[in-house]
Amino acid sequence: MELWPGAWMVVLLLFLLLLFVLPTLWFCSPSAKYFFKMAFYNGWILFLAVLAIPVCAVRGRNVENMKILRLMLLHIKYLYGIRVEVRGAHHFPPSQPYVVVSNHQSSLDLLGMMEVLPGRCVPIAKRELLWAGSAGLACWLAGVIFIDRKRTGDAISVMSEVAQTLLTQDVRVWVFPEGTRNHNGSMLPFKRGAFHLAVQAQVPIVPIVMSSYQDFYCKKERRFTSGLLFGIFNF
Ligand SMILES: CCCCCCCCCCCCCCC(=O)SCCNC(=O)CCNC(=O)[C@H](O)C(C)(C)COP(=O)(O)OP(=O)(O)OC[C@H]1O[C@@H](n2cnc3c(N)ncnc32)[C@H](O)[C@@H]1OP(=O)(O)O
Ligand SMILES: CCCCCCCC/C=C\CCCCCCCC(=O)OC[C@@H](O)COP(=O)(O)O
């Protein structure tokens, strides 16, 4: 089969694009660099999730699968030149159910979260994440608890079931009480669910704060360089 003559030109142009334009954008445009880095971040997680799914599926939906996801995600900070420093981790209760509450700046929180995630600990996530392709399925297999934030009644029922699970199945829960991402340097008013959960299950609340990403990441300015992230317990 013969190629249409213009096709060679298209192939050559695409090749030149890959060879020159993309690296030029990477080095000369911080915005392009931001987009490439974020695209790779999401793409890489989706790819890792594809690998994780068959391994996790052996156990079925099980909080122990979160260990597998954690191990698979720990290296990402090196790819992005982000150093994660944890302070006060000794405040973590040794072995009992509890509710972790933490600030939520962006999807990069996954890096700090995976650094300190205790055993048998599952995050509460918005229901939409369940439909994030392979990542959604991997989260489901690892026991992530999904809530529909638009249906408060349903979310409360799910949280009440979680309160039972905390005690009967020795599970910890990670909640972002702001209920949404917030990258303004301050914190939004807390939603009440995490605190109802702790009272219903009569378990302690463990506060964790991740330092501001402003030095190396800003969505508004399309800026993403390398930097240092602090995770601080019981501040
Ligand atoms: C290979 C790798 C693959 C990928 C691996 C990835 C793994 C990691 C995944 C991590 C995912 C993380 C995702 C993060 C998110 O999605 S954050 C968004 C979801 N999280 C939340 O929304 C936080 C929890 N939300 C709440 O707790 C809310 O309170 C909620 C229950 C949803 C209700 O919200 P809302 O109505 O908007 O506001 P209020 O809090 O004001 O509540 C309204 C009234 O209801 C009462 N209430 C709340 N909860 C309860 C409860 N459990 N029991 C009884 N009553 C409750 C509350 O008191 C309010 O009433 P009053 O005003 O006090 O009378
Ligand atoms: C701690 C962050 C967990 C990140 C999970 C990464 C999975 C990303 C892989 C690719 C799928 C793309 C889907 C993007 C989902 C991003 C997860 C996230 O950060 O959810 C935000 C949620 O909280 C609050 O949502 P809003 O800020 O209200 O909209």
Mind explaining what this structure looks like?
A hairpin with a 4-residue loop joins strand 7 and strand 8 (223-224). The protein has 235 residues and is α/β, with parallel strands linked by helices. The chain has one domain: Glycerol-3-phosphate (1)-acyltransferase (3-Layer(aba) Sandwich), CATH 3.40.1130. The chain is globular. The strands form two sheets. Strands 1-9-6-2-5-3-4 form a seven-stranded mixed sheet, sandwiched between helices. The chain has a two-stranded antiparallel ribbon with strand order 7-8. It is built from eight helices and nine strands. Helix 1 packs across helix 2 and helix 7 packs parallel to helix 8 (193-201). Bound molecules: ligand LOTZAFKI and [(2R)-2-oxidanyl-3-phosphonooxy-propyl] (Z)-octadec-9-enoate (UBL). [(2R)-2-oxidanyl-3-phosphonooxy-propyl] (Z)-octadec-9-enoate is lined by residues 42, 45-46, 104, 107, 109-110, 113, 126, 129, 132, 135, 180-181.
- Report the strand count: 9
What's the N-to-C terminus distance? Answer: 68 Å
Using the coordinates above, name the CATH class: Alpha Beta
How many structural domains does the protein architecture include?
Answer: 1
How large is the radius of gyration? 21 Å
**SSE order, one letter for each helix or strand:** HHHHEEHEHEHEHEEEE
SS class: alpha/beta
CATH topology: Glycerol-3-phosphate (1)-acyltransferase
The spatial strand order of the largest sheet comes to 1-9-6-2-5-3-4
Protein name: 1-acyl-sn-glycerol-3-phosphate acyltransferase
Domain Phospholipid/glycerol acyltransferase: 98-213
Keywords: Acyltransferase, Lipid biosynthesis, Lipid metabolism, Membrane, Phospholipid biosynthesis, Phospholipid metabolism, Transferase, Transmembrane, Transmembrane helix
Pfam family, one: Acyltransferase
